Fold this sequence. Notes:
- The complex is a heterodimer.
- By secondary structure, chain A is α+β, with helices and mostly antiparallel strands.
- Chain A contains 20 helices and eleven strands.
- In chain A, the strands form two sheets. Chain A has a nine-stranded mixed β-sheet with strand order 1-2-3-4-5-6-7-11-10, with helices on both faces. In chain A, strands 8-9 form a two-stranded antiparallel ribbon.
- In chain A, strand 2 and strand 3 form a beta hairpin.
- The radius of gyration of chain A is 24 Å and the shape is globular.
- The model of chain A has no long low-confidence stretch (mean pLDDT 95).
- In chain B, helix 2 packs antiparallel against helix 3 and helix 6 packs parallel to helix 7.
- The N and C termini of chain B lie far apart (53 Å).
- Chains A and B meet through helix 5, strand 8, strand 9, helix 18 and helix 19 of A and helix 2, helix 3, helix 6, strand 8 and helix 9 of B.
- Strand 8 of chain A pairs parallel with strand 8 of chain B.
Amino acid sequence: MSGIPLREPKTVMKLNRLGAMFPTRMSFMRTLLRNLSQKQAIISRPVWEIDDTGFGHAVYTIKIGDQEYSLVAFTNDLDPSDRTDRVIATAWDSSYVLYDGVPDITEINRLQKSVPRQEVGRFSAKELVLSRANKSLRLFAHVVEALKNGKQPDTKMIKDIGYLMRTTAVYGNGKFGIADRKILMNRDILSGPFMAEMLTVWMIRGFTHDLVEHLGGSKLDKNIKTYLGVGNATGLGMAPFLVTHPELLSNWMMARETGLARVRAIPSLSQRQQNQLLELADRVVNHLNDWEVSDQEYQLRISLLRTEWVEISKNLRSLMVKEKPINTLVNFSKKFSLDCQELVVAFVIEPFGDLVDGLTCCMDSDGSMPLNPIMDISELREFIQKDWHWSLKFDFKSKKETAQFWYVSEEKLEPRLGLRYEEPGSELENPLDIARQIEKLRLDLTEDFTNVAEFLRHFPEHRSVLRRVQVMASYPYSEIQDNMISESCRPIDMLRCKLSYFGAAKFDPKSDRWVRITLAQGAPLFDELDGRDDWWLPVFSS
Amino acid sequence: MKKNTKYITNWMKTFLDQEGTWPVKSYSVNEVSTLISKACRGRGLPNGHAFEMASLASVLMSDQVWMGFFVGALYDTLDEPVISLDNKILTINRAKFIISGPMAIDALISGVQTVVLRDMPWNRLVLPLLINAQNKYKCFFSFKIIDSSVVISHSNTKVLSNLGDPKLVPDPVIDALDILAKKTYVPSSEISRRFGAGAGLIDTD
């Protein structure tokens, strides 16, 4: 099988392309569920102290090999006026912790005092992930009511909403005193990026199913249950992550691009593979038809994508019998929108788990590549010339290219994006202006210095961006190759990129800086960890 | 700066006087690391130096007094260091830990044989700095404190060992770091509330 080169970072790492990404079989939720199946994980519910009105607590324990983890869930009576998805909220319908082991009653009592308080509480290293969720008011009440009447809920509402609760935060890696991520590094399948967080979300989903069945007094139809995922509202807080974790971002992209290159190199497709692609193409049609959003611009993108997918589907049979059919299909898609191109990427990866699934173990990074102070300045300049030419095109004297600034608000420590020439605070901006920093570095990098150590003794202010240059030399997909402070920078593109790696679909933007999505829709249920792995772009089957 | 000096002199006196009786709390390494990074930026350090200081968190946390010394170093005046390199010996006069520490490591890694940090307050912080550098660069260092100077050299063997797990963090340390970290936060305005993530959201689904 002769190779196909990876798509170049200058193509892939553009903000608008990142903002067109779709989940793949390499996304974290898919990887987690596949691994849980392989490890024959078993879930039990040792505690169910939920009263007739739906309030109380429950414990679910998952046994993965010789390790046990527990989701401890608390539900509270929330005044409707307190229900908001914003990070500034102080009360939620439900709160959760992923606990390392099985909590005894003393531990449950301790958690009951702190978990519902979320950010205000203090936690210990026994807690791995902290989360909270609010009910979907329309759907939750409707499902309970239908079950009480011995009926199944309205399938249109199930399709339209798709979740019973939506998380408004999922905290990991040491937040508020919970365990540092380092603790998970030797925990087998939880060692991968965001695996503990995905496990928490998947277990929350199971809890929401149990909760409505408990309140409704009868069982949900299995297809409905499978389709109900967990909603999530994601805002600006997540956006800077991709900039502040360059090695990690590169490893995510590298794994996906390597997977894509491998499938593009396939010389020909078997009949079974062709049939599988045809089935998936039909599923895409249904999925796109189900994907409706209120944002008009986004809805236009979806409409265009539907039209373009018809073209893809029409040509699929003939493309699949050509030499290197996947490569031919990917090249064919280049005439369509970025949404379509990236959908094709996710589509062609889907049937080839044998070629790509192994790459998911290369997606982590501890982000600790140290600065190399011995590097010659001439070598550094070469790297800048080679890898950073994209940053040259921005004119930072223009107000358009410096129109925005990233900062953390004092009010609730919430990351925000401000308008530099209209709002106060730009002197406190967070250093996400990477392209501008490169320009400043370039101006100071003269021949007067021999190596990096000497240069930084004179210009310590360039230390951070200089390290990024060195990181990029080893991690080619580490930088978003756009200007993050430009008037045209849309945080939602960063959010979609990251969320697609989580496995989210049906992105539903509520503005250019926050988005609602659904996770674990179509995923196996608690009693289905039997290897079922065919739930990419789920569609509702009534 | 005078205000800082007075604050930290009083702070450090109280901190050391009360050693062992401070209220303490459990913090994750990531929390402390993030707080140090913000505090460094609030102190006016370049982002790269803030990153280097933040990477010391797990080592600093293994000794509560070091945490206090680090606060001292952070509040210290930031004089411009005077640097000279002569026959593979780098001397930094008026050395301040948070600026000169990373420079010393850079120099040693890039081939300088000896680094002398002159008149550096809080010079015991060199130990966590070197332990962290050993872990990062997989090479060994040794150091001597002679009067008010610290002399750091390469070592053929490992003479500086890791110092154990992170300990509980004294509240005064967190409070002092927090004061600086808050200097990086932008006060809310009407416009920022309007454009914040999720602003205007009403949950009706």
